[in-house]
Amino acid sequence: MDFAFLRRLAVMAVILAIQVLLLNNIHLFDCITPLLIGYMIIYTRRGASRIGVMLVGFFVGLLFDMFSNTLGMGAASCTLLAFVQPSLLGIFTPRDAADDFEPGMHTMGIWLYATYLFSSMLVLHAAFYILEAFSVSDWRMALMAIFGGTVLSTAIVFICESITSNQRGILNR
After folding, report:
1. CATH for the stretch 3-171
2. pTM greater than 0.85
């Protein structure tokens, strides 16, 4: 077994636990709920197999659905994010970047990473909340949930990434 694989599996379990136990209970303005489950898909390296990324996205979403009782909305939205992720990463990274390039604040820079993160979270939240609403009758609430959840999730991931990158910098001194 590869140590990096086990580390990613442990991080995925922690993120799923945080999402299910903590973040699913946050409902700002009765509609804004952050979805942190997309982080494992967003952080996938550049040269990863597209099918592998989509399978990871599907299973992360399926696990989220099982614990959150969301009837496939998590699996569908995470699979869509996994499908779009290589294209988004290609937009925000240089063409000559290595195949094992991992997106992050320390590799992309703050502005590019924040833009990539926001775009990815927007895809995830738009898919999730459009499937949840499944109509245009309450489009204001759906738009508020999409953009509010995107901003909140982006802020949470950005803060966590800055803390972990600062700890990496301290440990490497």
Report:
1. 1.10.1760
2. yes
